[in-house]
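Can't paste images in this forum, so I'm doing it all in text. The chain is below; anyone willing to post the predicted structure tokens underneath?
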Amino acid sequence: VQLQASGGGLVQAGGSLRLSCSTSRSIFSFYHMGWYRQAPGKARELVAAISSGGSTNYADSLKGRFTISRDNAKNTVYLQMNSLKPEDTAVYYCKAANYGGDYWGQGTQVTVSS
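Text version of the structure:
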């Protein structure tokens, strides 16, 4: 399984970015797809997740600013990030899980300047 994350970059505080995660398999083959992030010196944390049934889950601190969605035809999951803050600066990773294991993308850097 290959996951390709893209869309990171440098943005000013208050700006927006959309991350994309494309998979080499149908996203319906995964019961969980999610975005995680890791800031320097901190543990990796869940940002948002979406199940194969379409249920979504967000980190409490990010609700209302971030939205996870998917395009089934493109086997792609998105993370729309609005009203970005400097504390959102991190490497963002895409993860997919099925009963065969967990799979991670390579990460994409998001840097929010103040």
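The radius of gyration is 13 Å. The mean pLDDT is 95.
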